[in-house]
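Hello forum,

I keep getting stuck at the same step: I have a sequence, I want structure tokens, and every attempt I make locally crashes halfway through. Rather than fight my setup again tonight, could one of you with a working pipeline run this one for me? It's a single chain of 379 residues.
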Amino acid sequence: MAASSPLYRCRDKNECPQRRQDLNFTTGVFGDNDYPMSTENAPALYSTVSHLFIADWLSALRPLCTETEFYSFLKRADLVADQMTSQGRVTLDQIVSLYQLAAIETGDEMMGLWSRPIRPRALQHLLTSVREATSLASALFRFSTFWNLLLDDYQFALIEATDVLTLRLEPQGDQTAQRFGHMLILKLAHGLLSWLARYEVPVAGVCFAFERPAFDEDYAVVFPAAVQFEQVATSISFPLDVLGTVQARSSSDLDRFLANAPRDWIFTQSQQHTQALRVRTYLSQTEWGSANLTAAASAMHMTPRTLIRRLEADGTTFQTIKDALRRDIAIRHLQAGLHSVEAIAQEVGFSSAANFHKAFQRWTGNTPSSYRSRQPVIV
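Reply #2:
Ran it on my machine without issues. Output:
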């Protein structure tokens, strides 16, 4: 792709003012120097998840408000009808918008995800407590005791083994796991530790008590570690050797965390914990003309056959990863509404808008124009 393209993807984020502005968008609450971004983190900007990923959330939210209020939330979060197909995608911006609207206007900061409402300012009190901890391990203990005061249906247990500390969510009785709720509370724990450490804290592993969902690949966007399903309990584990001292956080830092939530912590910035994400990172920094399997394998110091085998172990293929990145970049630009479909088609490596239309419909079940619409949601 020629460098004169209006959407040219700069190899160095500092070469391109718009690219640099977009990347700064993800540094968020950790601050310009707290959580430094690099080119390997760039794909996080474009990540999307399946609409099925938020289905449990919508089901929990619906009883908390009237039908009119519910559709108002979705409309204001730009979750439109055409995106709710079996292949529809949801962006970080949409998740953040819905969270910030619903958490405030329903009066439940966990939006119906737990049996007891989590009243306003609970998250503020949680941050005030954990920032007084002297170590990340003690912050995790404060996190668990705080939630144990609020939750009826679950209790947290903190379990130390030889080299890991595990935060485990234990049901109190016969509970059906709320998939989005379990994900969100584990990510909140990880996000708080990373905020206190001023870098994204490594995760040793994540377990969920529910069955592997059809959208299981979405969890790689959320957690910087392997995720297991159908486990005895939902949990997140951290290597003990990374749980060091807490970095001081001011009241303004706390306010910023709350104002941005969950933008800065719900999607991982890591792009190295699976082979599929490493390939996605490579592709995000490569011209589409040379974005092929042979070149990717060479860049990763392996044969194409080995790369194919490793991607199969992740449950994917090179072409699937390439198409997913192109889809997510296109969705981002379509929703921004700053460029024509023709320019976006060129940006994601298509020689014509017609070919892009066909591919986009195959990827999402929708036309590119549907991601620019603002029609009432049907779910």
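The longest strand covers residues 164-171. If your local run keeps crashing, start a new thread with the error log.
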